[in-house]
Records
---
Amino acid sequence: MSPVAIALTGIGLLLILLALRIPVAFAMFLIGFVGIWALNGLDAAMGLLSSESFTLASNSELIVIPLFILMGNVASVTGMSRRLYEAAYAIVGQIRGGLAAATVIGCGGFAALSGSSVASALTMGKVSLSEMDRYDYDPRLSTGVVAAGGTLGILIPPSTGFVIYAILSEQSIGRLFLAGVIPGILLLSMFLLTIWVLCLLRPAMGPRGPSTSGSEKVQAVMNALPIIVLTLLTIGGIYGGLFSPVEAAGVGAGAVILAGFATRTLNFRQLWEASRDSIVTTASVMLILIAAHIFNPFLALSHIPDFVREVLISQNLGVIGTLIVILLIYMVLGAFLEGFAMLVLTLPIFVPIVSALGIDLIWFGVLVVLTLEMGLISPPVGINVFIVKSVAPKVPLGKIFVGVMPFWVAMLLTLAILIAFPQLSLFLPSQMMQ
Amino acid sequence: AQELKFANFSAPTHTITAAVVDKLNDSVSAATNGELTVRGYHGGELGSGPADQYVRVVQGVADVAWGLPGYTSSQFPKTMIIEMPDALPLDQPAYPALLRAFDDNLASEFPATKPLALWGSEPNIFIMKSAEIRSPADLAGLKIRVAGSSAGEAVEALGATPVQMPMTQVYNGLQTGLIDGAISGASTLSDFKLDEVADSFTLGANLGRLVFFVVMNQGVYDGLSDEAKAAIDAVAGEELSKSAEDAWIVTADAAVEAARADENNVVIDLKPEEVAAFTDALAPVTDAYVAAVDGADALAAMQGE
Amino acid sequence: MLPTLRMVTDRLINLSAFLGTVALIFVVATVLFDVIGRAFGKPLYGSLDLTTMAFVVVVFGGMALCDKRGGHISVDLFERHFPPRLNLIIDIVVDLLGSVIFLTMGYAVLKSAQLSVMLNLRTNLLGIPQAWFQWLLAGLVIVTGLALLLRAIEFILAGESDHEEGPIE
Ligand code: NA
Ligand code: NA
């Protein structure tokens, strides 16, 4: 068998294993390990298994994952999330789907604090899902909102996705961050529009709450003040140079814990249980990431990217044609691969093609990152959907995938708008940097 | 025909590709009429990050890889001497020094592999934001990014506060003011986009430099035909190391040129009497390190004595 | 025999989770000390060494408990349409496969710990041997692998699994 045939067989087997409800991580481990064994020998497979598990579990950036989970868990035990949602409910609860809209806006705010979509979906999921449940929101809407809203983490700066893209494509990090701002706000607005349409078609998805008086609103906001102030201080600490975005996760968790102790809403036993729950969620998420890092080198070794490039170059599709085909390839690959690994695998191949066609690489970066976000929520391997599943174990995975579909369509529309109007991506960087 | 897998944790556009991967491939495929080739696996396709590259070669994930001893300095105590301030004069290339010291002093730090190249980077400079460095006093209380413990001691000897941080976070750290600067080679200005956020650069003090290796799995080498071994031996060592170090200097020079051309930047070239203050402050750090790793012989060999 | 094994395994799972939980609280405290100290010009020396190594314990300390709580995510689209017999077989296969994966990972990490000893790999500032954490990692995933193996045996002997189907859509 040729390497490409081995890779396609591997993908086919992965789909079958997933359909047989083999855990996602186990299936990727198995196919990746056996595939590398077939292509590169057993030593290579064993070596990668040991080094990826240790390296990712000691990665100084991924450490935000358990820290943000803990922050979300403690905010939930201490009632901070509840009070936050009571405030949101008092203000926008009487609008249909108001809490879902508030959650999306919260995701946008959290995206300004975190460079990672995984961290965004985890924290917002921990904070918001049980709250929306309490107000009788349809789980399809609430989980869909968090899974999709979480992806804003890599479009709104700071963004790990843009940093990796910048280094691989030799573009400016600062320009890419600026380029992501307007598309990020556009996508956020499209999500809000999606919620509005969904609740118009099916009012039961986000039921209307009772109207509240002005003083009730003020009181609710006052109750939520601690968590709002803590979040703003954490964002301020990053931009004020007190700590890095990675450390912000630890500072955020520590601040919520200390605030909980100070207000006597947290005791040591609750902290212990919240931490114990956090390591369980962490294990589930990290195992999928480690498995993805075993599966990706298998596809790299199979030379599939080179194969794709040859097909692409031989077709002569023109600027928009090539662009659309590349984005389609990202959508297909994104269905299977973890996003950042996919960038590393494919950008070195696509960037020269794109740049030879005279396509602006900043604009292309925005389109690629948005397509990456679509991959995070598209089946069968939708990391953000798995994340939401890990914090909402009672909701069937199928239901979450159904719930995110409208938002996936919203992303597709946003992508089309960004392709049609490159200035939406390029205006800010051209204004603010020379 | 046999293909060697060369693991590159950086982008394919990085200096390493032309200077080492392609050069190695061109040389050995020409010498063996295409019987032996080298293929680069870029962007960490064979496993990400610089720290594990040596291990990946030993484990057979890759046949050849490049890396920085600085990421796992405990494995390379004597090789790391070349990174210390004033170990070598600034204008003297590092690769001949490393090769001179290799057989007697450094070989034991490279078990289970065959080193194909050892070289040094351009000299370290001060890469600062909103702080002009002309003397050690200008560094008092500033937060400077470091990677390893000896760099940390050097920073402390200059009166600054060392902050441990991965290179990938330096951009953001400089931008937000979390750190005031970094001590590193000028090539990081383009490789990690630091030129976008730093605005003051101080050149001329001997702050040491980085060291790099290319290693090949020993078992894979031993399994090659005599012809293929000869093809590798012909390019390994002096030729490949020089190609790498020269290319590094060219990249760094271009970055310094670009920094000088930008009128928003301050580029400070220290005068000899200003340099002396740094030399005096840093000499005890280098002496202490060399003594701690029992490296007097290695240093003497590097310095050609 | 089997009940004793179950008790021992459960204790090992709890011990693993205990280590992971302590490590997570330790990471939070370390980051806080470092950030506050740095604001006063006295950062915690080697904080990155401490947090990244503790992270290893956080990730793998919770692995066995995660599995026990059914936390490994799978695609539950079709399980409702599978006959009970097939669901039992799948449950057993999943546990056996997971067991093989974790035990292989443990073995691979033990082998690479040997390499870390040979190469004297240590953290960059504090010089903590990397092999310590690789041994710990290997121990934690071997516990996970054995727990999965035991559960597979329990399912086989009982002829039924503790499989719960997801809520009705
Ligand atoms: Na972000
Ligand atoms: Na996907």
---
Amino acid sequence: MDPEARQLRLRAAELRRLADAIEALTVMRLDQHAGESTVQSPRFDDLLDRLRRSQHDLYSRADELRSSAFHLELRADELDAAAMREAALAAGGPV
Amino acid sequence: MSGTFVRYDLGCVITLRGLLLDAIVGLDAITSSESEAAPAIAGVRQTRLLLETEYLPAVDELSLSDALLRTAFGVELPLGGLAGFLLGDALAFLDLGTTTPTGLEGWTDDEVLEHFRYQMVERDVSTFDADSMAAFEGLYRELERRLTLIGGAAFAEQLGEHVDAVRPAIAGVADQLTNMASQGDTAAAGALATMTNAALILTDRDGDLQAWLKDQAIKGSCGATQILLADSGHATDADLLLAIATTTFARVDNTGSALSMTEGEAATFTNVLNQIGIDPDTAAVLLADETALATMLREGAGLNDDAVEGVFTAGLARPLLQRRGETKSLEQANAELIEGWQVWSRSFDHDAPAFFQRLDPGAGRGLANSLYLYLPSLSSGLISENRTGGERPTEQSVFALVGDEHVEVATWGEIGVLLGRMTLDDEGAATLRSTADAFTMMQLSTGMKAATTLPGDAGARNSQIGRVAAPAVELNHLLYVGIGLEEDTAQRRHAEAQASRKLIADMIVSTAKKVALKNPLVDVATTPAQEWFDAQLDDWMTSAPPELSRELPLDYPSAFRASFLQTILDADPGTRSLIGLGAVSARRWADIRAATEDYWDAPGADARRLANQRIEQLTNDSDEHGDADEEGRAIAQAYHDVRSSSGLTSWRPLD
């Protein structure tokens, strides 16, 4: 395996772990406990709106992390494929 | 105060604050050196900033503005999941008026309690619709929760000069809710329960309110009574219960017979009687009250049958019961038995106003439940009086023998009348029938055990068994006479076959269960119970045979014979030999056992008659073909000896 590809896969794994960790944060379910059944006033209504926007933003960031991870893994696959081709050529076998 | 109206659930706000802190800690833990992660990390920091600098301060400000939350953060808070924002609904619904702040950003304790005080004015809750009732309940639920946590002292102080208005309001609204609840209004019942809980917390902190509620309860406020009965301490306060009961019994309506009570008052008074009915001592005190006793005996007074039955059962069974962990002396038990007899005496009294009415079914059942306990001391006196009786034995006095004391009970006829009236109620009749048959069985069994120690032949022993059984015969005759006097018929005497085969020992356990199972502090006083039944045996072993001459009570002879056979079946072979039945085969006993079981289990009169015919065939000196039957002859002879000495054979019709 290509050393750079290996490094890319490690980074991709880290990004996926980070995405999972963000989605598992307490804040991501905080809205369930901050709704009208808990407190109701314009100030808290506004805070709830902003909290939900933040949650939406964090979900988007998590998706972006997985997308980045996907691209890193694609790049790693390409590097591995190139390395295999080079190895085959060096051995004189079919590519 | 400024801002706009805010509603919140206290428990949920506290949960939210805890989650905010958890969320901040969680966001802090999100780190990464990956360049691709930079936007996500920025988003995490931004979210953390929102929580730390805006959300958490908002919650804390709300908390600091509310006395309860301020307290709650310093102590462990029970989270009951109650919808606290109902408070907002409640205040909105219940016409806050001019004292309501228009901009409320949380409440201080004084402000909150001020609102409650304002709401606790006398109002006509009977006009509330479902939403208003829910709001009203929400108000009191919130008050209850706040008082649980912050105590009632502040509120009591708040009441201050308004106390004279608030207290009647509590009782008045509770009265209304009690009446509505007794008519099946579940919303009112819920509101009453919630209001009661809040009021009880207040009474814990406010001794004056407690005393005031007691006073109101005694004066007839069913609302105040309901609030007090919800507290176990007050519900077992004998003085309070008796005070409520005696004042209630004095409330006779203009018909002179029924108690003047609303439905709510009647339901509340049922609760009071139920509480009295689980405490033999308190029940006995109530039965000793002449007005109370006369009212409870009278059908149509408007009392709950089961509650009245409970009072009679507990009060009359008092000699047999003791406080758990204590041992009742025989002297004490005898003294209480005499007091119980005094209740019976007043119940027998023809001239008492209650006897111009029919007997209350509950009272009759309660009397029937306890009859077996009083029979042993009564029956020898009855037989004795009748034995020396003149032309009209119904007018002769009957004495009970309790210890060494002769207690005048009533006339023979009065006892018969009461027993007859008790049979007018099906349940009372069944209990009486069971008691009578159980008493017969016990007497025969006791007589048989005692007879085995006697010298002489089997005939002498069987005569002795019959003498011991004589009180049971007498009781059955009384039942018959009573029924006759009430112009009722034997069809009302519903024999519960299995139940009737129970011995007195089982009935003691049954009584104990009726009372003691409802009250963990009460147990059976076994020593006096044993003494009474032993003493009765001694009495009969030394007395002369009875000389009775009256009519047989309907089907009693067949029941007596079945009881006699059942007693032999339960005896060991040695005992059977001693009474002349040693030669009867196991096969014959098996046939007799099957026939007696058919007799006791018979579903109706026809089946019982067939079973009785079978018994007769098995216990006769000749079989169905007319051939001599030695085994049957032996049994017939033994039964003849027992029956002859029991008073069963020579009865003639009463004048």
---
Amino acid sequence: MTSEEIHNRLSAAVVAMQRDEVERLSRQALELGFSPEAAIEHGLAEGMNEVGRLFEAQEYFVPEVLVCARAMAAGFDILKEKVTAGKLPNKGTVVIGVVQGDFHDIGKNIVRLLLESAGFKLVDLGKNVLTERFVEIIHSENADIAALSTLMTTTMDSMLETVRELRSTFPNLMIMVGGAPLSAQFAKSIDAHFYGENARAAVVGAHNLLGLPFEP
Amino acid sequence: MLAADHLARLMHRPLDEVNRNGELLAEGLIQAQNLYRADFVIVFADVYVEAEALGVKLAYSPTANPHIISYLNPSDIAEIDIVHAGRVPEMLKTARLCRSEFGADFPVFYSLKDPFSLAAISLSMERFLINMVDGVDATDEILRICAVNQMKLMDAALDLGCIPLVGAPLASGSLIGPLWFERYAAPGMMRLFDRAEQRGSFRCLHICGDISVLEYQISHLRLDLFSFEQWYAPLWERMPNAISMGYVPTDLLARRDSNSVIAAAWDCLQTLPKPGILSTACDVPADADSHLIKAMMSTSMD
């Protein structure tokens, strides 16, 4: 089997939610001496890229994305042991979190998964994140993008406050927002750079914000 | 659509008192009704009331909505005397007090979760959904138990003369799509709606998120009242007899922009099939300016 065949099968197994098959192919890739970085990038990540496309096309929904991500993570756990430091692509650092007062993180988790698999370095601050925490970590990580999420109308003001603080503290930071009650109008009104109406849009948006090409 | 957080702000009371005290919640609803003059009220505190009754542990705060500090395991989900569990007695007390205050002819809705959303909230959304896709047999049983508990709650609300409004925050098209909705969410809803109908009440649903992908599934629920967040015209061709309710975006109320609120309310009034009910698309933000809500309400009067 060639490396290309392994990559294609890995990708297909991620899309098909076949965790066991992903694990088997990941081990096989290592046994055959193929590059673990390439297996991650052209197999697992490519599969998640396709999952993102299916999600955007409303062929997959959150349950499928979660199970695909679990399959991808299982393969990643096997391949990462052999990864050479610095060989995986890093398109930029994204600090992601759910704003203060909101404990709903499923949307944020899906955005994180898709951004990670697209080659960004993700720093996940979790949920109910204080503005001060965003500031601290964005500074220490020298982040390129802050990705803020909220599911509730009641915490939209939190988002506004966090965006305001980040804009004034980090003039070069790109800020993207998303979440069920938000809109492009709202994002514009709070001076965020980008509103992602779904996780796939967030991936496209992250590329655009950093001036990177995005290949669907 | 008012939750305890906005009512607490109106009353200048700590939120953790209002969403745990049926008398205070009723007082808040009555105060809000005097202020906003709606055509009916909905008894609702926050999304966790029934999950807490099932055993989910919450943390309360005087300034923020409760949040979950520990979820249940699938084996923890059991048939319970939900009417007497957790905060449910306080919610029913609110319903009773509202019934008494507003009189027999004034509609009082009682909000309760659909079984799917209740299970997903109680077990944690991600874990529940992953188990569901894995085809874990327990999913059907969990949903059955949640439906049984919610039927008891619905009966109690009906006994008080309330109209049950089934809320589906997580059985949403945006989250689970049509196949999972049909397989796992719709059956529990149907059980609740059938019960309401059998008891001479109405089949009322509020659903969050995208409804366009659920056109077929929602139309088969035979709804009398359908409250939604996003307009989707083709759905009403499938259910012309359902009363529509929506859908002024709540972010407008958070942005403190009265022109946008009024414009959105007009847009809704012109779009909603008649008879329709003008409402916010989801819960009013806690610190929404009362003047904006009144502006929305007066638009409907105009």
